[in-house]
Write a structure and sequence with these properties.
The structure holds 2 protein chains of 2 kinds. By secondary structure, chain A is of the alpha+beta class. Chain A has helices spanning 5-39, 65-78, 99-102, 113-116, 131-135, 161-165, 204-207, 214-218, 234-241; strands at 53-58, 94-98, 119-123, 141-143, 149-151, 172-173, 197-198, 223-227, 244-245, 257-260. Chain A has 2 domains: 1-41; 53-260, Alpha-Beta Plaits. Chain A contains 9 helices and 10 strands. In chain A, the strands form 4 sheets. A 4-stranded mixed β-sheet of chain A has the order 8-1-10-9. In chain A, strands 2-3 form a two-stranded antiparallel sheet. In chain A, strands 4-5 form a two-stranded antiparallel ribbon. In chain A, strand 4 (141-143) and strand 5 form a beta hairpin. Chain A is elongated, with a radius of gyration of 25 Å. The N and C termini of chain A lie far apart (91 Å). Chain B has a single domain (2-386), classed as Up-down Bundle (Formate dehydrogenase/DMSO reductase fold), CATH 1.20.1630.10. Chain B contains 13 helices and no strands. Helices cover 71% and strands 0% of the residues of chain B. Chain B has helices at residues 10-36, 51-64, 67-75, 85-106, 115-118, 125-153, 161-184, 197-223, 235-264, 267-277, 287-305, 314-337, 354-386. Chain B is mainly α. The chains are: A alpha+beta, B mainly alpha. Chains A and B meet through helix 3, helix 5, helix 6 and strand 6 of A and helix 5 and helix 6 of B.
Chain lengths: 267, 387
């Protein structure tokens, strides 16, 4: 039996329509299954939640070089941060710098050298109005509803507009392949490709598992992390009753990292 | 019409081959950068944009400057520019393509560049910059090509192209304004954070772009039988007036910035100016560049203000002085000094690497190749008509 072109097309159309209908039917039956599959990606119930995560750095708790090293190392080891051994390619999420440069602009020439050289702990400020998020042309850097400025390393095109936009020097760029320069790769966290930007993300992956950020855990009380919108949280109590400072508040970015200076027990 | 670029004398082919060699060297350098990462450039954590973005910024201005011919010719019926306007449009095409290439070689993940379209961010100035640049490229391709094709047939250009020509006028202003907004809206970079930035960008563009165009016209006059400014027309001298006033405005805007920084005595405002004119904390790598730029700017203005502008030898010197004054200011100093001092009041200097410079030269060679081909087509059409 032979069919002409017109017949062939008609029959093909019928078969196609049946096929589509069939797939609807199958989807309808297995609809429940899809919902189950989707729920596997829902946020875990044990995750820590907040309206506005914020950090207080209690400088009185950072006395020795080891206090800084321990905290920095806790971050470096779990986030696969490479060490290139040169400042040009350097990648930093949390690091140490002195008072004079951290709070640049407000310097007082009569301060003693000791005071100027006082070390401070520095990380991304997770600004309420983050200029880096505004600058990013792809949404690779974005602000989460809980106030954390997070990054999608797989969407970043490496234009470095965010590095120009950040007034705090919090961002690093992978100028070369970081993998050979990672001391010990932690398989729980992705390594990065060359050509993307990265920075501190307040350990969003740990918060999702119900854990505090690594640096907070390692700081022995030097870093206090909590919900700024909760009037009973420790961070809120410190910030509302004690003298804290933030970096470059005149720029209006509203950093979420507060420095408790002048010491004393906060609790 | 493109086939006209395939016939030419020995000198024409020697020039094309020279450009192809430079492009090949640049391409090899780009492959190295592609494999290794942007660490092959002089850029660093502190100075995260370098020569690539600086060239992009400068060339957006060159592209926008075509409007200095289009507006008088089409809007004010200023006939003198009749033979030059197509050369301005073709220069704009080459400049925009170079801009896009400079962005492309600057990104760390070029294969992801379409993410800008897949996830458009309406709050990012870069999204708008991409839109206006691509739009400007299309406009100039359409306008340039159709008007030249019409001229070849001896007919007036089709009616539908008129509105596109008028659209190109505000569009040219928009490309350089949006490019200035990339920088002038960033809170922590005091050297860029100036309301006058967009205005200064336009003024310097309308000086540098037409300067380059006149130099190209003088070359065209030498190497072909087509004269873009035949005796008695005075197109070049009219354009020189535009260049002169644009450059004076540019210098005036710069002086305004220096006054605001130093009279207010705000340290953050002064720091980058100190860095480029006298050096900061012992770092002086940009000082010779900035003074060269300043001297060239004044020499250029001086030569164009006085009747020396009509001198056949002094005119090209004046135009080159203005072109390079602006190139140093925008294509070298402005972007690098924006990162000095860094967010911690420290100075990190930037020195481009040879690989990086090879890529820059390669992109410029592509631009020159496009200009050469497009100009060859335009010249051939004109020579044909003249016969």
């Amino acid at each position: 039996m032979s069919i002409n072109r017109r017949q062939f097309l008609r029959r093909a159309g019928v078969v196609t329509a049946l096929g589509l209908g069939g797939s609807f039917v199958i989807n309808g039956i297995s609809g429940k299954k899809d919902v189950v599959a989707a729920s596997e990606y829902a946020p875990s119930t044990q995750g820590l939640k907040a309206n506005h995560w914020a950090m207080v750095v209690d400088m009185s708790k950072f006395k020795t070089e080891d206090d800084f090293k321990r905290v920095i190392e806790s971050c470096v080891s779990i986030h696969n941060i490479p060490d290139f051994g040169n400042p040009k390619d350097e990648i930093k999420w949390i690091w140490e710098d002195d008072y004079e440069h951290t709070f640049s602009g407000g310097d007082n020439e009569y301060l003693t050298e000791d005071f100027k050289k006082l070390p401070f702990m520095i990380m991304c400020n997770h600004c309420e109005n983050p200029p880096c998020v505004k600058a990013c042309p792809t949404g690779a850097t974005f602000k989460r509803p809980d106030g954390i400025v997070d990054m999608d390393f797989h969407r970043c095109i490496g234009c470095r507009f965010c590095m120009g936009a950040c007034p705090f020097g919090a961002r690093s760029f992978n100028y070369r392949d970081p993998r050979p320069f990672i001391k010990k790769i932690d398989t729980d966290y992705p390594t990065r490709t060359p050509g993307v930007v990265e920075k501190c993300i307040f350990c969003v992956e740990r918060l999702a598992d119900g854990l505090m950020p690594a640096c907070v855990e390692a700081s022995k009380g030097g870093l206090i992390f909590g919900d700024l919108d909760d009037p009973n949280s420790e961070v809120r109590k410190i910030i509302s009753t004690q003298y804290t400072v933030r970096r470059k508040t005149e720029l209006g970015t509203q950093p979420s990292v507060y420095y408790l200076v002048g010491g004393g027990d906060h609790a | 019409m493109l086939e006209k670029a395939l016939t030419g004398g020995k000198k024409y082919w020697a020039w094309i081959i020279f450009l192809l060699v430079v492009i090949a060297v640049g391409f090899m350098a780009y492959l190295r950068q592609y494999n290794y990462g942007l660490g092959l450039t002089g850029m660093s954590r502190d100075v995260s944009w370098g020569l690539y973005i600086a060239q992009f910024t400068f060339l957006v201005g060159v592209a926008a400057s075509a409007v200095m011919l289009v507006t008088p010719y089409y809007l004010h019926d200023f006939k003198k520019f009749g033979k030059m306007v197509i050369l301005g449009e073709f220069l704009a095409i080459a400049a925009v393509i170079m801009c896009i290439l400079f962005i492309f070689v600057d990104v760390g993940q070029p294969m992801r560049i379409l993410n800008v379209l897949l996830y458009p961010q309406l709050h990012s100035v870069m999204f708008y910059d991409m839109c206006v640049l691509c739009g400007y490229l299309v406009i100039n391709l359409v306008v340039g090509w159709t008007t030249l094709a019409a001229e070849r047939k001896g007919t007036p250009p089709p009616k539908w192209v008129k509105p596109i020509i008028y659209l190109s006028i505000p569009w040219a202003f928009s490309i350089h304004t949006v490019t200035a907004f990339l920088y002038s809206g960033l809170p922590g970079r005091h050297f860029w954070l100036a309301a006058i930035m967009a205005a200064r960008f336009l003024a310097s563009a309308f000086a540098a772009g037409p300067s380059l165009l006149i130099i190209l016209c003088l070359i065209v006059r030498k190497v072909s039988k087509f004269d873009p400014d035949p005796p008695g027309v005075g197109a070049i001298q009219s354009l020189v007036k535009i260049i002169r006033y644009a450059m004076i405005a540019n210098v005036f805007f710069y002086v305004c910035e220096v006054f605001t920084a130093f009279y207010s005595n705000i340290p953050d405002e002064m720091a980058a100016f100190k860095y480029v004119f006298v050096g900061l904390d012992g770092h002086t790598s940009l000082v010779p560049f900035m003074w060269t730029s300043a001297i060239l700017a004044f020499v250029g203005i001086f030569l164009l203000v006085f009747p020396t502008r009509k001198n056949k030898v002094l005119l090209p010197i004046a135009l080159l002085a203005i072109f390079f004054a602006n190139w140093i200011d925008k294509g070298v100093v402005l972007i690098i000094a924006g990162f000095v001092p860094n967010s911690f009041d420290r100075v990190t200097e930037y020195f481009p690497t040879s690989n990086e410079i090879s890529i820059v030269l390669g992109v410029y060679a592509i631009g020159f190749l496009i200009v050469t081909i497009l100009y060859k087509v335009a010249i051939s059409v004109r020579e044909e008509k003249a016969q």
